[in-house]
Amino acid sequence: MLSTGALRAHLLAARLAGPVATSREESLRSYRLFAARDPRVLIGLDPARAWNQRDVMEVMARKCGVSADPRQVSGHDVIDPELTLTALDAFAERLAAAAQRSAPVLLGTGHPHRLLGFYAALADALSAAGCAVLTPAYGRCVDITTRFGLRTYNLEYVRRVAFVREPGTPRPGCATGAHTHSPMPVRLALAAAAEAGGPLPELVIGDHGWVCGAGQLGFEAIGLADTDDPALFVGQAEGVVSVVVPLDDAVRSDYYRPLTRYVLNRACLSQ
After folding, report:
1. SS3 for 246?
2. Torsion of Cα atoms, 105 then 111 then 255 then 58, to 10°
3. CA gap 28, 42 in Å, rounded
4. Is the pLDDT of residue 174 over 70?
5. Is pLDDT of 169 > 80?
6. Do residues 214 and 105 lie in contact, with contact meaning Cβ atoms separated by under 8 Å?
7. Could you give the CA distance from residue 44 to residue 18 in angstroms, rounded to a whole number?
8. Maximum CA pair distance of the chain?
9. Bridge-partner residues for 162, per DSSP?
10. pLDDT given at position 18
């Protein structure tokens, strides 16, 4: 089993935690837009109370480890590796609980280029433990607002992990997909599962709008988030999201493999 110390060292070496690639400017911009309730940053969350920028920053400092000093406005942002490790343990506990009751699960990502392998390994392990890994709305169209206007994508699954892809993309079954923060894909998937008479997921695993969109609809949701994704951490603070793991969500895909091994070992799901 990968030790906590070895994983901590990997988090820092791979810049998954510690000083990360996300800039302080990007993070502060996201906190400001979240406080203004910009849907591009809410990503499916409907906060129960008003949050000003300072409130958001304080939550991010507690949950993620970023600086709570509003005078720090430049440079690389920072994630506390101890907070990442603690959240990974909580993440593993939710996986273990789902496996113990053979719960149906849904996995989806807005980072297919980076994170599909991480989620696919979880899907394989949960399936082997008796969980139904759901794939509702496969191939259905979903409209997503982007900076280029409204675009239509297809909801697809590779290794039972959902993501969106532009229509006409070649090589079906490959993991080439679109980066998105939108909650529309998870809303489509959950609606399709309900229309089909179930089962509905008892746990949704993912990032961005997959977590916030599912959590806002009352589904237990856990996932990963970067320092410029305040919606997930605010959702956790409000009790809408179950677990959020703070880390850089856009490093090389192979850098997440030690996290996969650690989480599956902690959840007693290693194959």
Report:
1. strand
2. -90
3. 14
4. no
5. no
6. no
7. 28
8. 52
9. 108, 157
10. 97
By DSSP bridging, strand 221-225 and strand 141-146 are unpaired
- For residue 198, the model assigns a pLDDT of 87
Q: How sure is the predictor about 40, in pLDDT bands with cuts at 50, 70 and 90?
A: very high
Check: pTM over 0.90? Answer yes or no. Answer: yes
Q: Kind and range of the H or E element at 244?
A: strand 243-246
Query: Is it the case that residue 173 has pLDDT exceeding 80?
Result: no
Alpha-carbon span 197 to 262, nearest angstrom: 35
How far apart are the C-alpha atoms of 84 and 170, rounded to whole Å? 37
In which residue are the tokens 């409000």 written?
238
For 107, the enclosing helix (H) or strand (E) is strand 105-108
pLDDT value for 170? 58
Q: Which residues contact 39 (CB under 8 A, 6 or more apart)?
A: none
Write out the two tokens for 65.
Answer: 């480890």
Nearest to 256 by CA among 136, 113, 153: 113
- Please state the rounded mean pLDDT for residues 183-196: 98
Q: How far is CA 88 from the centre of its chain?
A: 13
Q: Which long-range contacts (CB under 8 A, 24 or more apart) does 54-62 make?
A: 56/31, 56/230, 56/234, 57/28, 57/31, 59/230, 59/233, 59/234, 59/237, 60/27, 60/31, 60/227, 60/230, 60/233
